Amino acid sequence: MAFTYDIEKDAFFKRGREEGKLEGIQEGLQKGKESTAINLLKLGKLTREEIAQITDLTLEQIEHIAQKLNT
After folding, report:
1. Using an 8 Å Cβ cutoff, are 64 and 57 in contact?
2. pLDDT in 10s for each residue of the chain, 71 residues
3. How far apart are CA 36 and CA 52, in angstroms?
4. What is the pTM of this model?
5. Which residues touch 59 (CB under 8 Å, ≥6 apart)?
């Protein structure tokens, strides 16, 4: 008699899958914030402090993005 195992029902598999989804969502949100910051920096009408406030990124992150744009 063959033994079959349905991995879709495994608790560890399910938890890993959920953690992966959450990680993907967080990564997507971060990329969206960075993309918005890039567009606002290119627009050139706001200070870096204002961009940090709008995007909820740190001023350090905005400075890093700005440096990458200028190189």
Report:
1. no
2. 677 888 788 888 889 999 999 999 999 999 999 999 999 999 999 999 999 999 999 999 999 999 999 96
3. 10
4. 0.79
5. 48, 49, 52
